[in-house]
# Entry
Amino acid sequence: LGLTLVPADIRTLSQLHQAIDPLPGDIDAIFMPHDAMLASNTRAIVAVAAVRGVPTSTPHREGVAQGALFSYGFNLYAVGRQAARLADQILSGTPATDLPIETAELDMTVNLAVADYLNLSVPEDMLRHARIAGRVGE
# Structure
């Protein structure tokens, strides 16, 4: 695909800043994998990306509301509800081994305001598959 990855092993907030600050000036995008530490610092990552005019993807829809271009992943609220329901079943006496294996529902979210800011057009087929395709905060 002609991609060059610039991986960063990030476990602390200081490592996050050490990884973001020296990013090459010619990067085309920032991809954030599923990671609680990165998710809790999405605003900082997106702020750097916005200054550089670089699109960012996150694994959760909440990251799009914080300024990422798009996400394909889980909804934190829905995952919390799912976890609470399963915890309630276990606390009510259902053995954990009797619970079915469940995965979180994945969806795509697109931030059209960020696309406009970055002067990017979002393909119609991508918008058709997006669960939410709106402006910041929608």
Remarks:
- The two ends are 33 Å apart (CA to CA).
- The chain has a mean pLDDT of 85.
